[in-house]
UniProtKB/TrEMBL annotation:
Pfam families: Imm-NTF2. It comes from the Bacteria. InterPro entries: Imm-NTF2. Residues 18-141 form the NTF2 fold immunity protein domain. It comes from Pedobacter cryoconitis. This is NTF2 fold immunity protein domain-containing protein.
Length: 151
């Protein structure tokens, strides 16, 4: 596993828009998660190789986060827990519903809900230097309230 395997069609960092950052992150993350899932389906013992700190899978995920997300303590996110599947951006939609500028270098991007599959997501994306990075994500709950979610 290496990050190039998942980012082969990536737009160069400084040329990527905020919307493209969200879309690429979801696509790249799901490529990685699908491969991890398939490895475990083929051989359940692979789970013990993929989840420990320092494993190839966890290090690749850290590189994905480094490329698309701001640097901050995400100890309860996937890079800290090793939990690869379900929830968060796993199988999340990439269709952009809206992009709202909050400040000069900060936007909120909302993706569409995938009916019976994935809730709408709202990504906070900030510009660091010339590069847009995801700072956080929320999911729209069934009762219409935005709630913190994991990337």
């Amino acid at each position: 596993m290496n990050i190039e395997k998942y980012t082969f069609d990536s737009i160069p960092d400084a040329e990527r828009t905020a919307e493209e950052t969200v879309t690429e992150f979801v696509i790249v993350y799901n490529r990685w998660a699908k491969e991890c899932h398939n490895l475990i389906v083929d051989d359940r013992e692979k789970l013990n190789e993929l989840t420990p700190q320092g494993s190839v899978a966890r290090e690749t995920l850290k590189e994905i986060y480094k490329k698309y997300c701001t640097s901050k303590n995400r100890q309860y996110h996937r890079t800290g827990t090793g939990y690869f599947f379900y929830g968060g951006t796993y199988k999340g939609g990439t269709a952009i519903e809206s992009c709202t500028e909050l400040y000069k270098n900060e936007v909120m991007i909302q993706t569409e809900k995938i009916k019976n599959f994935s809730p709408a997501k709202r990504y906070l994306v900030v510009k660091q230097g010339q590069v847009w990075k995801i700072d956080g994500v929320e999911s729209l709950s069934g009762n219409g309230v935005w709630e913190f979610d994991i990337l």
